[in-house]
Amino acid sequence: MAKKSTAHGTHTDDNHRALWSGRFAEGPDAAAVEFETSIRVDERMALDDIHGSIAHAGMLGEQGIITKSESAKIMAALRGIERDLLDGSLSIDYSAEDIHSFVEATLTDRIGEPGKKLHTGRSRNDQIALDERLYLRRVIPELQNQILTLIQTLTGMAAEHTGTLLTGYTHMQHAQPGTLAQHLLAWAAMLVRDWSRLEDALGRIDESPLGSGALQGSTLPLSRESVAEKLGFSGVTLNSLDTVSDRDYCIEFTSALSIMQGHLSRMCEELVLWSTTEFSFVEMSEKWSTGSSIMPQKKNPDFAELIRGRTGKVYGDLMNLLTMVKGLPLAYDRDLQEDKEPLFDALDTVRANLTVFTAMISSVKWNTERMAQSCEGGFANATDLADYLVRKGLPFRTAHSVAAKAVRMALDAGLTRIEDLCVEELQKCSPLIEDDVFAVLSPEACVENRKTTGSPSSASCRAQIRKLQKFCEKSRK
Question: Looking at 271-315, which runs of residues are DSSP E strands?
Fold first, then answer.
């Protein structure tokens, strides 16, 4: 019989035939094989496949489905395969149909007939669902820690800028005075939700699908609960038919990534905007900028733009998955093989973007003087005038009209600030206005008088920072 060389001797071609080939008298066309194989996509789950197989083999021995000697031999060989993959002495065979086929064929090469017993009581349908869940359960905490690192970077920066004035905008128009700290903490708050969504997703991933078989379980005395316990799952999935056709966990994870990528894109949009000559709020580091091939003076925020631009990829990955499962009948359909590429692409893209954004934001220089100037003019303190009148007993709607009248008066006089009107002119808008009004209209006063939880006052920002720091400390994995 023909032999094929490997890193550990030889194996027979029979061991490397497709797992389903027994029913077929004729092998598939070479182009068909190339079209259907997924090994180059799912090879990253090799260790997860091995860990799942070790747990399954242990359960088969415990249940008397195979002998304990065979079980021990299989588990030892699987651990050897893991070691060899990790140290590089064994390479993935890309002629294999998928990662399951590669692992099983390598196992059988090494220990012979007992290796063929590993697949007893399972299908690739429940096996791939297990591998994906194990993989996501492994990488999500790593991603969450990346998020925490960025939150800590932002809170550390915010702590240095609790007194740095920065106008807040709505509709890209001056709205109310704020601080750079408040803005950075708003970004951090987005990331907390991203972390929490991933934590929620982990809870639904944390169920073992193995033992569901192709779709209807098994006639063999499998213990799904034993496998789940060995692999550290909190329990097993409820229904075998649903289990093998479920890709909600992939969609939910990619949805969480899409929302996070949207947050990164919004942050980058603001950095791009703020780095323009017109704003000049921030100067991007030369390490994270590029020039122009024709305009010598240019310093472009290309990396922020690339993060923003790659949002479409992640959104597309989510749409890919949503469309893939639309209208699929129960149970498993081969369409589901196409889940891994968009899943991994979204993950890889967001992980890279987080890494770059964290380094990029850490290196920026803030133009605090220009930011403070942004709070001058634009009547951003009009609400503060209305609140001043409310404290004097005026209904807010009436106070709102008075403040609007004061803005109109200043505009008609060619002024850009309410406080440029004298008190006598302001009293024409309301007799309740007195000299003490000017003490509440400065940008610093507008910020510090906002003491509600989550507001931009220095005390409130420091409280937000402490809360975020505690969150990071207790959440790191």
Answer: 282-283
How many Å separate Cα 279 from the centre of its chain?
30
Catalytically active residues are 171, 292
Asked whether 93 and 40 are in contact (CB, 8 A), the reply is no
Using the structure block, give the residue that is written with the tokens 């290796």. Answer: 115
Phi, psi for residue 208 in degrees, rounded to 5: -80, 130
What is the C-alpha to C-alpha distance for residues 391 and 442, in angstroms, rounded to an integer? 17
The first and second tokens of residue 62, run together, are 């415990």
Rg (alpha carbons) of the chain, rounded to whole number: 31
Which residues, other chains included, contact 235 with Cβ-Cβ below 8 Å and sequence gap of 6+?
Answer: 206, 207, 208, 225, 228
- The tens digit of pLDDT for each residue in 258-290 reads 999 999 999 999 999 999 999 999 999 999 999
Q: Which residue has the tokens 């030369």?
A: 286
State the pTM of this model.
Answer: 0.92
Peptide bond into 129 cis (omega under 30): no
85: Cβ contacts below 8 Å, ≥ 6 apart: 46, 47, 50, 92
Cα 308 to Cα 273: distance, rounded to the nearest angstrom: 12
Task: Name the E strands within 230-349.
Answer: 282-283
Q: What is the C-alpha separation between 383 and 445, in angstroms, rounded?
A: 12
Tracing tokens 């998955």 back to the chain, one arrives at: 321
69-89: pLDDT as tens digits: 999 999 999 999 999 999 999
| DSSP assignment letter at 163 | T
7/87 Cα distance (integer angstroms): 12
Q: How far is CA 38 from CA 65, 101, 293, 333, 338, in A?
A: 30, 11, 41, 15, 9
Tally of CB atoms within 10 A around 327: 7
